[in-house]
Amino acid sequence: MADLQVAPWTLVIPVKRTAIAKSRLAAAYPQHRPELARAFAVDTTAAALASPLVHAVLVVTDDPVVSGDVTAVGARVVPDLPAAGLNEALLHGATVAAAEFPEHGVVALSADLPALRPAELTAVLAACVAPRSFVIDLPGTGTSLLAAQPEVALDPRFGVGSALAHQASGAIPIELSGIESVRRDVDTAADLAHAVQLGVGEATADVMSLVLGAATGTESLAG
């Protein structure tokens, strides 16, 4: 990837406390929802760090278990000082990233990409040549990645209808084929089933083994 004329990127990944994260998975995975939320974040972080265009990953979280897990795979934890929601956490992380790595672009990445492939993320980052770029999630209305070039404000607008909000703000959608793992954020049991088909990371696979064990009455033998 050395021939790509793209500045290295610093990624900012926001992670809620797992006690309240992924509430839409609670019905299908009542016992394992917090563990799944943690595993998604760990696998997303590990895959991001494996991209040659990623210089550093800052995880914005106040969850102590997540903090330990993502630090173990090479990320740096930034406390969520604003504690005021997703966009505020991203702005805080982006401010820290820009101060420490001013020559790098800043990327906001969903923490819910357990099937993320480093090669697909690298292809997306290489395509982020506009001042601000974003990736529309598979449902078509949300955003899984938002990138801003050095010295360009990230201006995150995550939430309901964020794809339209980011496009209206001037961000350019990345229209590449073969980047399903970057677009497959997981909110529902159906999303997770699709992610498993794509191939999830080690942490999520471990939790899914526990889920299977619980379903078959052999949870104590899993792993």
From TrEMBL:
Keyword GTP-binding in annotation: yes
Pfam short name (any one): CofC
Domain of life (superkingdom): Bacteria
Its EC number(s): 2.7.7.105
SUPFAM superfamilies reported for this sequence: Nucleotide-diphospho-sugar transferases
Gene Ontology molecular function, alphabetical: GTP binding; phospholactate guanylyltransferase activity
Keyword annotations from UniProtKB, A to Z: GTP-binding, Nucleotide-binding, Nucleotidyltransferase, Transferase
Binding annotation for phosphoenolpyruvate: 143, 159, 162
Stored InterPro entries: CofC (IPR002835), Nucleotide-diphossugar_trans (IPR029044)
Family from the record: Belongs to the CofC family.
Role according to the record: Guanylyltransferase that catalyzes the activation of phosphoenolpyruvate (PEP) as enolpyruvoyl-2-diphospho-5'-guanosine, via the condensation of PEP with GTP. It is involved in the biosynthesis of coenzyme F420, a hydride carrier cofactor.
Descriptive protein name: Phosphoenolpyruvate guanylyltransferase
Organism the protein comes from: Kribbella pittospori
Lineage, broadest ranks: Bacteria, Bacillati, Actinomycetota, Actinomycetes, Propionibacteriales
